[in-house]
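Posting for a labmate who doesn't have an account.
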Amino acid sequence: MQITRILAVRHGETAWNRATRIQGHTDIALNEHGRWQARRLATALQDEPISAIYASDLGRAFETADAVARVKGMAVSTHRGLRERHFGQFEGHTWAELEARWPTEALAWRKRMPDFAPAGGESLQQLQRRVIPAVLELAARHPGEQVLMVAHGGVLDILYRAATRLELQAPRSWELPNTAINRLLWSPEGLSLVGWADTQHLQTESGSALDEHTT
């Protein structure tokens, strides 16, 4: 049985990441540090065999993937299924603002209630139903090969849970740093975890990757 190796990467840092401002589907570009992270990622992956590069169609993910694609002489294919969770009315607000403006909704979000969705946004269940089929579809195109998928913190969280068979509401104990390299395997039986949150390529600069708490 052939497997597909997946390199799953969260996009580089943005100004809204730094400000703890929720992005969701809002299309925020990388900041200078995020572009540095993307270049470091490209250097780290330059000798990895990669058959295809996929990214969310949001700019911060595409730009991160494109840094790798340029080094590899490849193109990036976008897929809307790799988009971050849609946070509706939460988008553009900081964590502190959410607590102040929508305390009940903020609590439901903090408790990871699977069916809770901010007004105009997605629930964790809806995110899972979008992300998993998209990733499995892309992986199934490349049996016996390795692919790169550049997405978002919420997407990576869903993939970790799928690969380790953890429920949506389970507290998160793993990190989701910007441009960390995460390794998964796909087979027709599902996803499995190989390695997580490799940030060795970012270690030449202190404070190089923010963990993901929101988007």
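Reply:
Got it, the structure tokens are right above this. The chain has one domain: 4-202.
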